[in-house]
Structure formats: C-alpha cells, structure tokens
Request: fold
Amino acid sequence: MVAGSRSFVAIAEWAAAATPHALDKLGIPGRGASESTIRRTLQRLDADGLDVILGAWAALHHDVDPEQMQVIALDGITLRGARGPDGRGRHLLAALTHDTTIVLGQRDVDRKTDEIPCCQSFSIPLTSSGY
Reply:
C-alpha cells in the first residue's frame, strides 16, 4: 500500500501526482511509473525475501536499550480480501516488537490452528541492537 492506495491504478495515480522532491526522496528519477510497470514489478517481487529484508531493516533501525529486556509478540491474523489458490483466506503469523509494534517478520500458516506449531520454527533476524 502506498500512501493509502489499495490498487495498482491508485498507486500509479499517486506516483503521477507526486512532486519531483517526493520521487527523488524515493530514489525515482524523472516521473512516476505507469500502472502496468508498477503491477508487473510488484507481481515479480519475491514477497518472502522482501519481508526478510524489511524485517531486518526495521530491527536495525529500532532503538533498543540494552539494559532492558525486549518483548517480541507473536500474533496471527487473517488477511482481509486475500485468498490462496484454494480460495481460502490467507493467515499470517507475525513477530513484532511489543512497544512499537514494528513487524520483524511474518510467515504464512495454513490455518489459524497452525499458529502454535509454526511458532516453534519461527526465526527472527538477530541484530547487535539487542534482539
């Protein structure tokens, strides 16, 4: 989701209306991409790989007091409007910081009842910041 946009068309409309300064801050030279370019790019992304990268980045940029214990919460959620190949809703198990709710990582689970076994194999990128 970009700036509240919920579709490829809405993201492209946001990019078309964005100021050159905003695009420059995002590392986008020139003008924003078209809807078809945005759609093709996002569909080709390795979502799991991007999730690992963004979770590690969030953990590195989260200020941690090394003298304090850090609490990491695990929470399961059913994604609204997302369906798997079998037509059933998708469920995720997410690990997030308890104080700021920064998501450190997430994993697909088959059903809500699969969250507990999934917790046993969940891995969170450990960093020198205390996690």
User: Anything to note?
Assistant: Confidence is low (pLDDT under 50) at residues 125-131. The radius of gyration is 18 Å. Residues 47-120 form one domain. The helical segments are 8-17, 20-25, 35-44, 47-60, 115-120.
